[in-house]
């Protein structure tokens, strides 16, 4: 733990390590939603951020059909780009992120707050193609990465509109209600990023951001030939860890390892992690649970027919066993079952751990009261102003 | 220098202008500091004395002014306010909230699965009493486990079945779940055989010797009861598991509801319930794809070289798979597409190792999980139905044979909710064409995979019984899914007051509820296919309501924003209105005071 504020993480981890029987991830598919929200050439780095993440999740095995890539501007084809048709995330220009195999699902002006919310909640027009939909279910893990310019509880889209932390939180709650995810990792790289996930209230969401309230997120370095900054610091250090440690989809590195690698001095802002909605211990959550695509496999022989009552299958297949033998065998299984029910008490308490987090955070009575007072005050001041003016006018 | 812009006489009357000049001289030093228009009281008093007051207003003018003010207020209140209200309110169609909640909590439908079992006992004299005993045993078991959704009902097959073959067909409406045939068999003891292609189960029992007539029939009764239990046990477990979350209501944010749900769960769990199986059922459920009225099946041949160049997939499918698909057609429809991909390499992270003992290349289980090369294999579907992939992979000759040591039957594995993969090892000079005889084992594996992915219980060997059981399972699933969607919608509508609810949602919800209750009725009657149909409509309507595209929550507006929008608009409009009525009231009060003083 590099930061005292992260002590909470340690405490939570120890608290949550108790129900380990739930720790194994239950997902059968992985999805990624990668969003850059800013427009214009000088925001080159945001597109590079998002394309770097795209490259990473693809490298770790998530197929294009399960990645929703939202690119808000086309810097590769910008006339100011010295290297037309390419996007680089490093001054050494080793990797062309805009290479030959990239599938942009939402581009340019299609990247709007409304489309993003529609994508999450799947309230899309009926003629929407499959590639523009998030077709997840309750066994899907979703990785959501956002980058752009933001502020306290908002993120700007296209320099024209903004999404608030409340909007995202509500959209996630709708996803939860419709069982559209198993677990979710929300990562955001923007100024005051940690405020963006502060309003979440749906279970099984793990969130991380680049900077605290009133902190800016900075770019890492500029490429003098491209002429602008090419990557943000937080994303850069995430990528550095992923590239050097998580070589392929069978990597055993955990999210705790990734989060421990964050160094606020290098990142130049304080990255945040929110774990109170998440139920597993981060030390047991593989990075590839979210950023990779590891399909669980059932091999014929161990998975397909394991659950069968072998005896009755044998009987079904025509093997004849006398009644005595059969009963003997059944008795054995009964005893086994009864033995296994003895620990059912604690098991059921562990299984029944349902989520009981805070209700909606922002409906706070006190702030509402002051908000009302201030609004009323503003109205009153205006009235008094008009009144005074008209008094002068009359006299 | 114009002091009193209200007095028209100031500029043209010479006498008054001289007074002004005198006054100016008196207060010149103060005037320099004060802005024009400001004067102290003494100046004002002297000025007032010199000015001519405007003539008193005529009563009609006053009346007209009151009318003007009144008409402005009337327009504002009776036109402006309603207009403002009508254009800014969010339309929320009325929804049967309580009913939706009840459905989602499983209060309105006690799901039951009455199963009719026919018994044929041609050579047993007191078959009826035997049936009574068995029924008793089954009912006892049911009472013990209070909430079992299944109710087995036994019936003696019509004795004259052979005489009048039309009769049983007429009664087919009642859907016999399975037919037990009791046959005496002297060679072995008690045993049973499940016919794999019909619903018939043969039960063999030792022929009664005259000495122990009663003990044999008691033993037989017990045996029959146990067989029935075994036949439907797996399905029961599954359906119970499906129905449980409905009552425990996992989506509820209300923390209070969870302990009660636990109680319900504990109550529902019979004490002798094999608890270890819950994880097992969970695992099996995780394999099953979500129910959909139609699926798309993609059969792909991926070969590491250019050979084989073609395959007999069409005839193989029609020969080995179509019978199964048509048997499944009451549950779901299937569309099929096939593809061949040459020079398809497995993903680079998978490295088979050569095993000297097996003389073969082997794949470890970790390799299998990233076996699918999703970056390069064209497996994305454009169909809107859920897609199931079946992949036949032919490894490179230099890596043949490629085997999966942990697989017992064939080199195949299943990816939950996704599809199945079979590795086909050809000899070193492969033919350029795969005949359908070569494809047969692979197609059979795919058929097994398909059944597993769709959720058919693997247990009784009889396919019709398995499919019946799949129908029941799927109808339970759509019922649960439709009602939980209704519950989600209800909670959503309550939680987000800024969301608009169009009338279509309301009709969809009502449709869904109507079909839900119809499905429930059909279930109770025992016609499961119809129940599935109704449930399917209910689910579709519920989904349509939930995913109504106009129901996207308004982008969040804090109160400050609303104030900022309204104040510049309403401030200038409302101040003259308010001040106007204020002055009017003051005038009326002054008049009344004056008249009171006069009288």
UniProtKB/TrEMBL annotation, chain A:
Active site: 149, 191
GO biological process: attachment of GPI anchor to protein; GPI anchor biosynthetic process; proteolysis
Keyword Cell inner membrane among record annotations: no
Signal sequence extent: 1-23
Pathways per UniProt: Glycolipid biosynthesis; glycosylphosphatidylinositol-anchor biosynthesis
Pfam families to which the protein is assigned, alphabetical: Peptidase_C13
PANTHER family: GPI-ANCHOR TRANSAMIDASE
Family per record: Belongs to the peptidase C13 family.
Stated name of the protein: Legumain
The species this protein was found in: Drechslerella dactyloides
TrEMBL record, chain B:
Subcellular location field: Endoplasmic reticulum membrane
Region (Disordered): 1-40, 250-274
A single GO cellular-component term on record: GPI-anchor transamidase complex
Polar residues: compositionally biased ranges: 250-260
Pathway: Glycolipid biosynthesis; glycosylphosphatidylinositol-anchor biosynthesis
UniProt keyword terms in alphabetical order: Endoplasmic reticulum, Glycoprotein, GPI-anchor biosynthesis, Membrane, Transmembrane, Transmembrane helix
Biased composition (Low complexity): 7-18
Keyword Transmembrane helix belongs to the record: yes
One BP annotation, GO: attachment of GPI anchor to protein
Transmembrane segments: 67-86
Membrane topology listed for this record: Multi-pass membrane protein
Sequence similarity: Belongs to the PIGS family.
PANTHER family: GPI TRANSAMIDASE COMPONENT PIG-S (PTHR21072:SF13)
Protein name: GPI transamidase component PIG-S
Taxonomic classification: Eukaryota, Fungi, Dikarya, Ascomycota, Pezizomycotina
């Amino acid at each position: 733990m590099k930061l005292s504020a992260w002590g909470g993480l340690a405490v939570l981890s120890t608290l949550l390590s108790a129900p380990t029987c739930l720790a194994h991830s239950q997902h059968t598919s992985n999805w990624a939603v990668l969003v850059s929200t800013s427009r214009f050439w000088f925001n080159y780095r945001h597109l590079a951020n998002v394309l770097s993440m795209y490259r990473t999740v693809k490298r770790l095995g998530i197929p294009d059909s399960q990645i929703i890539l939202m690119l808000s501007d086309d810097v590769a084809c910008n006339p100011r780009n010295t290297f037309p048709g390419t996007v680089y995330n490093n001054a050494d220009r080793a990797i062309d992120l805009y290479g030959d195999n990239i599938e942009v699902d939402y581009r340019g002006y299609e990247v709007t707050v409304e489309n993003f919310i529609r994508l999450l909640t799947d309230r899309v027009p009926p003629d929407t193609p499959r590639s523009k939909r998030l077709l997840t279910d309750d066994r899907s893990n979703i990785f959501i990465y956002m980058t752009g310019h933001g502020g306290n509880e908002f993120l700007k889209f296209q320099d024209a509109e903004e999404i608030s932390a409340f909007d995202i939180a509500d959209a996630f709650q709708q996803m939860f209600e419709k069982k559209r995810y198993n677990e979710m990792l929300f990562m955001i790289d923007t100024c005051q990023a940690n405020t963006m996930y502060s309003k979440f209230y749906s279970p099984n969401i793990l969130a991380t951001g680049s900077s605290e309230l009133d902190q800016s997120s900075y770019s890492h370095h500029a490429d003098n030939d491209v002429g602008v900054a090419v990557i943000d610091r937080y994303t850069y250090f995430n990528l550095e860890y992923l590239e050097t440690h998580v070589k392929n989809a069978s990597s055993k590195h955990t999210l705790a390892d990734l989060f421990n690698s964050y160094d606020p001095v290098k990142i130049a802002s304080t990255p945040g992690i929110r774990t109170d909605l998440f139920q597993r211990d981060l030390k047991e959550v593989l990075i590839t649970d979210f950023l990779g695509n590891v399909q669980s496999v059932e091999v014929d022989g161990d998975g397909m027919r394991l659950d069968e009552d072998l005896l009755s299958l044998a009987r079904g297949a025509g093997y004849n066993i006398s009644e005595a033998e059969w009963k003997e065998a059944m008795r054995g299984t009964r005893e086994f079952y009864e033995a296994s029910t003895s620990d059912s008490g604690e098991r059921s308490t562990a299984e029944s751990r349902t989520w009981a987090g805070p209700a909606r955070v922002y409906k706070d009575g006190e702030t509402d009261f002051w908000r009302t007072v201030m609004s009323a005050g503003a109205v009153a001041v205006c009235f008094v102003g008009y009144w005074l003016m008209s008094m002068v006018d009359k006299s | 220098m114009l002091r009193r812009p209200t007095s028209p006489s100031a500029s043209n009357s010479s006498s008054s202008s001289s007074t002004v000049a005198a006054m100016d001289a008196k207060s010149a030093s103060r005037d320099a500091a004060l802005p024009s228009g400001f004067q102290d009281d003494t100046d004002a008093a002297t000025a007032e004395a010199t000015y001519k007051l405007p003539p008193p207003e005529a009563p009609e003018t006053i009346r007209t002014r009151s009318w003007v003010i009144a008409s402005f207020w009337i327009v504002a209140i009776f036109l402006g306010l309603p207009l403002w209200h009508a254009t800014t309110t969010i339309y929320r169609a009325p929804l049967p909230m309580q009913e939706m909640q009840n459905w989602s909590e499983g209060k309105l439908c006690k799901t039951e699965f009455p199963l009719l079992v026919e018994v044929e006992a041609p050579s047993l004299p007191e078959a009826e009493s035997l049936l009574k005993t068995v029924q008793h045993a089954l009912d006892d078991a049911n009472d013990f486990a209070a909430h079992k959704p299944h109710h087995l009902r036994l019936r003696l097959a019509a004795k004259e079945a052979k005489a009048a073959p039309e009769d049983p067909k007429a009664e087919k409406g009642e859907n016999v779940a399975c037919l037990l045939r009791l046959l005496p068999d002297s060679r072995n003891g008690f045993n049973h055989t499940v016919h794999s292609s019909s619903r018939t189960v043969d039960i063999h029992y030792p022929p009664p010797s005259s000495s122990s007539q009663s003990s044999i029939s008691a033993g037989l009764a017990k045996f029959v009861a146990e067989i029935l239990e075994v036949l439907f046990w797996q399905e029961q477990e599954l359906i119970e598991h499906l129905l449980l979350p409905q009552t425990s209501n996992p989506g509820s944010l209300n923390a209070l509801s969870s302990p009660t749900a636990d109680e319900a769960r504990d109550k529902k769990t019979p004490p002798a319930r094999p608890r270890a199986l819950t994880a097992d059922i969970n695992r099996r459920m995780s394999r099953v794809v979500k129910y959909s009225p139609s699926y798309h099946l993609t059969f792909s041949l991926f070969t590491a070289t250019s050979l084989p160049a073609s395959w007999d997939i069409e005839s193989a499918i029609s020969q080995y798979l179509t019978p199964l698909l048509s048997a499944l057609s009451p549950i779901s429809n299937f569309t099929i597409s096939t593809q061949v991909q040459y020079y398809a390499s497995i993903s680079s992270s998978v490295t088979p190792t050569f095993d000297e003992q097996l003389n073969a290349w082997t794949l470890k289980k970790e390799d299998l999980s990233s076996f699918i090369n999703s970056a390069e294999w064209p497996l994305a579907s454009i169909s809107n139905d859920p897609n199931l992939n079946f992949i036949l992979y032919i490894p490179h000759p230099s890596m043949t044979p490629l085997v999966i040591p942990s697989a017992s039957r064939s080199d195949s594995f299943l990816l939950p909710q996704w599809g199945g993969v079979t590795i086909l090892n050809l000899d070193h000079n492969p033919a350029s064409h795969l005949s359908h005889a070569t494809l047969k084992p692979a197609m059979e594996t795919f058929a097994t995979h398909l059944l597993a992915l769709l959720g058919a219980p693997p247990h009784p060997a009889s396919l019709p019984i398995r499919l019946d059981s799949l129908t029941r399972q799927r109808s339970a699933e759509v019922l649960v899914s439709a009602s939980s969607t209704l519950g989600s919608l209800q909670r959503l509508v309550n939680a987000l007051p800024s969301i608009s609810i169009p009338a279509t949602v309301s009709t969809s919800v009502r449709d869904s509820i109507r079909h839900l209750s119809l499905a429930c009725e059909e279930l109770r009657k025992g016609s499961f296919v119809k129940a599935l149909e109704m449930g399917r409509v209910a689910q579709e309507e519920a989904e349509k309501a939930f995913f109504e595209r106009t129901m996207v929550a308004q982008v969040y507006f804090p109160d400050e924003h609303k104030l900022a929008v309204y104040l510049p608009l309403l401030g200038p409009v409302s101040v003259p209105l308010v001040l106007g009525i204020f002055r009017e009231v003051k005038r009326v009060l002054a008049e009344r005071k004056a008249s009171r003083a006069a009288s």
